[in-house]
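debug: dumping io for the single-chain case to check the tokenizer round-trip. Nothing else runs in this session.
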Amino acid sequence: MPVIRSKLSEVMEKHDPKLSIRKLAKDINYHFDSVRRMYKDEMVQYPRDLLLKLCTYFNIQPGELIRMESDENDWAIDKANEYEEEGNDKEHGKDSNL
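debug: decoded output
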């Protein structure tokens, strides 16, 4: 199943390699812990007001702060399901020929 990941650390590094999480939180007037969780990609939900403040601060669009990734385990599950489906099709083919 795909997951949403934060790119805040990348955005901060590109904007100013010396910018700290604490300074960013102070500059945007937002809770340090929330900014830290987003930076470390530990957030479950992304508050719209935080996204707006970050987008305004960095002059970027929300899609530059988050990305969608597929989970490596999902790839293995998808491939296993694909193999089983192909195997089932072959079985049906054999039965229909008999």
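debug: round-trip ok. Strands lie at 3-6, 66-69.
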